[in-house]
Amino acid sequence: MSDKVIVTAAITGNIHTPTMSPYLPITPKQIAEEAVRCYEAGAAIAHIHVRNPETGQPVHDVGLVGEVLTAIKSRCDMVVCVSTGSLDASVEKRVAAVRAYGLELASYNAGSMNFALFQVASRYEPFKFEWERAYLQNTEDVIFPNTFKTLREYAAAFKEQGTKPELEVYDLGMISNLAFMVANGSLDRPVHLQFVLGILGGAPATLDNLLFFHNTAKSALGEFTWSVCAAGRFQFPMCTAALLMGGHVRVGLEDNLFLEKGVLARSNAEQVAKIIRIARELGREPATPEEARRIIGLKGLAKVRY
User: Fold this and answer.
1) What is the pLDDT of residue 2?
2) pTM above 0.85, yes or no
3) Strand locations in the chain (E)
């Protein structure tokens, strides 16, 4: 299925705040509906975070995750990748959904880094909710923690549940981290990588960096499947490069609020439709959820607990 491309839709994330776009989904119902729209547009995977339904603030809430999971499953067979990323939550909170629901796929962040959002705070005045300004500004002095100890603990929780880790790589050193975790048996081959480009604190979103990441991973990890996502205006250029290189792609409002310059995306599905149009121009067809399961090596929807 080398001509097939897995399209992931990152529905809401924990980067953008409600003031930045009126189209950012907030409630479990909105998040699930957006995921289904993306499925109908051709996406195989939904990447999920949840938020406080009243304020839109990112939260780790297993109950809210469960609402999203069951709502999606009731309407389609989409693969759901739940995020374990957090700037402040404990390991137990971060893997709670993996343990509660026996997920097929979940994110696994491959190392610690500065994850900066503070630089955009001055662009938005006034904010819709009080928490937004402080949430952004505080990232000037916050580290996104993923130590070797916690990498080992995350990996153990994933193995326990038969959950495939989607290995999030923000910088070159994280590939070495993953090679170490494979060598010591914490992670199993073949791995599935997500190259995340353009976050302040991580690698810039350039073609040179994407090629360097890919070639370094091939040398360090052998065979693997991989996808690309990129922040803001770099989303579609980097995803197009991944399509040309034979990789998979992630779009969505978590990474980029716009459909094109100056035009807010009114739905994640608009971005999905755009990248699929580009893919087809390049001779690649979107994978179905079942094809994505075979490509990545997932246990299947029948084995989840939701």
Assistant:
1) 76
2) yes
3) 4-5, 7-10, 45-48, 50-51, 58-59, 79-82, 105-109, 113-114, 143-144, 164-169, 191-197, 224-230, 248-251, 258-260, 263-264, 285-286
